[in-house]
């Protein structure tokens, strides 16, 4: 079991008051808060070991390089990558996905090929493929969802015959957990390269890339307790080897003369310029923290909070929520519409109560168009430090707001 009170005491920001009320932070789907252990690991690095990595040979530089590579090793273990070299540090999920699009897509997708994604994707796993297809004159196909926000079974046929299939492990709006293991198996059996967007899944459930069988997995540190500015691309080494770099310069080069250049080995081939070193150290500390809590425990906690959100907010009259009705099939978030009230008004009024939620299209505009609410939704996103009492408080505040606005 997860000890929420103990966890909460590790997060300094949760002691804040907003407009005279205790902060209830329900925007972890946008970014998580950081525990003191991560904040301290980053400042300790800055205070004692700060130096550029993989360049100079003085003690400080060697210690900094060791810390950076240690973070890579922890990340590889966290997602069960076979080799550390399969872990590329980027800025965020968006950059990781664009790296695959530029490095693999530009080289291997040809005119007339098919690229498949789904309607529930975040823009970062939709627009790169849409634009690649346009440039290459390839076909861009999108798998639809059913009434409960799950991928339509009969549309999975679209994966067949594709060159590349990109899908999120869990949706940042619907909360739907996709069976990525099964989806990647369909892709693999058909010789289709699979790209999994793990931005929302890696923070909240155990991840094993070998079990999933994906070719690529992208995720961001800032949604899993680490600082901003560090992201991860996992890629199978044989695919990474055949890809072209996305950015040029600095230590990604092994040899260069006036006429040609030879790329460094993996993973450095894809890490041009000085990397986000202290952010990587922070990611390592975040992984230690998450492992300490236990990813299975985190998943159970999210499921409980999902159930609580469905039972309270989800069942309120005048509220329409999106995504599966069963907590087992969802992550710990709930996107909802307060009928007749603009989402920004809801968020502003909740802020008066100290509650932080996100509103708008959550960078999933095609999905909002699909469900017929282009103006966007409200979204409460929980994480390891949230309690059921906070969800009761949210439901109470929503009740008050509806009464006030609708009479
Ligand atoms: N979603 C949200 O509020 P970045 O911004 O690159 O770290 O992550 C992009 C991204 C990709 N895929 C999914 C499924 C995501 O949820 C996100 C980020 C945040 O929903 C910020 S827009």
Write a structural description.
With 407 residues, this protein is an alpha/beta fold. It folds into 2 domains: 140 residues, Aspartate Aminotransferase, domain 1 (Alpha-Beta Complex); 253 residues, Aspartate Aminotransferase, domain 2 (3-Layer(aba) Sandwich), CATH 3.40.640. Helix content is 38%, strand content 16%. It contains 13 helices and 17 strands. A 7-stranded mixed beta sheet has the order 4-10-9-8-7-5-6, with helices on both faces. Strand 5, helix 5 and strand 6 form a beta-alpha-beta unit. Helix 2 runs antiparallel to helix 9, helix 3 packs across helix 9 and helix 4 packs parallel to helix 5. The chain is globular. It starts with a helix and ends with a helix. The mean pLDDT is 97. Bound molecules: ligand C6P.
């Amino acid at each position: 079991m997860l000890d929420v009170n103990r966890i909460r005491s590790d997060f300094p920001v949760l002691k804040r008051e907003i407009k005279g009320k205790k902060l209830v932070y329900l925007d972890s789907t946008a970014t998580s808060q950081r525990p003191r252990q991560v904040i301290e690991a980053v400042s300790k690095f800055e205070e004692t070991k700060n130096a550029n990595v993989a360049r100079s040979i003085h003690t400080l530089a060697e210690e900094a390089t060791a810390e950076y590579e240690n973070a890579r090793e922890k990340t590889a273990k966290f997602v069960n990558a076979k080799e550390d070299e399969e872990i590329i540090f980027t800025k965020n999920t968006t950059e990781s996905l664009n790296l695959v699009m530029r490095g693999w897509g530009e080289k291997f997708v040809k005119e007339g090929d098919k690229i498949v994604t789904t309607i529930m994707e975040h823009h970062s796993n939709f627009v790169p493929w849409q634009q690649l297809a346009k440039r290459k004159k390839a076909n861009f196909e999108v798998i639809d969802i059913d009434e409960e926000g799950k991928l339509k079974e009969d549309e999975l046929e679209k994966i067949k015959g594709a060159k590349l299939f990109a899908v999120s492990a869990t949706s940042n709006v619907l909360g739907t957990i996709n069976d990525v293991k099964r989806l990647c198996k369909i892709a693999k059996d058909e010789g289709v390269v699979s790209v999994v967007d793990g931005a929302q899944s890696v923070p909240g459930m155990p991840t094993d890339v070998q079990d999933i069988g994906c070719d690529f997995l992208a995720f961001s540190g800032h949604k899993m307790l680490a600082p901003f500015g560090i992201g991860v691309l996992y890629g199978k080494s044989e695919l990474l080897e055949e890809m072209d770099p996305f950015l040029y310069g600095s230590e990604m080069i092994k040899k260069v003369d006036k006429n040609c250049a030879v790329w460094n080995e993996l993973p450095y081939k894809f890490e041009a310029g000085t990397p986000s070193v202290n952010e990587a150290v922070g990611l390592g500390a975040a992984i230690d923290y998450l492992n300490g809590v236990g990813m299975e425990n985190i998943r159970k906690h999210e499921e409980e909070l999902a159930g609580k959100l469905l039972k309270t907010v989800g069942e309120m009259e005048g509220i329409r929520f999106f995504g599966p009705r069963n907590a087992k099939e969802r992550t710990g978030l709930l996107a909802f519409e307060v009928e007749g009230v603009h989402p920004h008004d809801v968020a502003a009024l909740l802020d008066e109560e100290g509650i932080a939620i996100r509103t708008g299209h959550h960078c999933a505009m095609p999905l909002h168009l699909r469900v017929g609410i282009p103006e966007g939704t409200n979204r409460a996103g929980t994480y390891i430090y949230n309690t059921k009492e906070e969800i009761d408080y949210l439901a109470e505040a929503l009740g008050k707001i509806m009464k006030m606005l609708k009479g």
